[in-house]
User: What shape does this take?
Amino acid sequence: MTGVISHTDHAGVTTPAAAPLEDLPIVRAPHYGRWLGVAVVVVLVAQFVVGALTNPRYDWPTFARFFFSTTVLKALWVTVQLTAYAAVLGFVGAVILAVMRQSPNPLLRSISWGFIWLFRSIPLIVQVLLWGFLGALYTHLGFGVPFGPVFGEIATNDLIGPMSAAVIGLSIHQAAYNAEIIRAGLLSVDEGQREAAAALGIPQRRQFTRIIFPQAMRTIVPPATNEIIGLLKGTSVVFILALPDLFYQVQVIYGRNGRIIPLLVVAVVWYVILTGLLSAVQFYVERYFAKGAHRELPPTPRQKFLTWVADTRAIAGDRRSQRHLLRHGVRSPRRGPVEESR
Assistant: This one.
């Protein structure tokens, strides 16, 4: 392919100049606004980091002393356990509620809607308190025939301790919110998928588990992960039950030594680390469920890094080759002048 440059003089004579397009220099468009934004962000981040490192009120020696302390690590494990239990139980309950919301049975739909409406209306801390002090309402729980004889009883406080009460409250809260997320994901699947599966004679249970639900997961995963991250931070409400989670234990420590700021920073940094791990898990779960929508899966961070390294080396190699040619008096063909032809 040839690019033509022509010039017309005063006598009306046109002198064309032609050159291959691949010999024309490639000039990248400048992005001044982008680089200005990067500079502003870098300056602001540098100011924050320097201010945090030089401010003695952060008390970094106290932070370092308690960050990996046995007490804090045990409390961190309690927080992880609460998050894991409530996330799993809440997701299972949410799937059941979402399926009930789409049931042709009006009773099941009504029960599901009422459950979601009720437990989305009650604040999380109130739910945890209600389950924690259930023994004040029902001192004993009996086992037997409904409205009939009771075969055995057990004290409510012996059956539902602080850990159980926290898990129940958090799980019900998560189920009520995640049910709508899962229902939205199921509704996002095209109706033609269900019709095609039914036409092939696939049983309804297999339609749901093998066709509908995997496609819905691409829509479910981002908001559901957001809810789990909110749950991770929401576990701090269990301090009301004196359950030694991360936030409660940090409160106990700074209540004794008065080092409020460094102990709060300890909790903040651990919450940030756990949130980062959840975000990484979200990426790989989304990548797994993207198999049915993309021929090539999105590259992982490691693959992106290796690609960037390879591109950087290739660019550096091209620049070295150009400098070598210029030193020996040979002009690079990509930056050479456009030759005139008459």
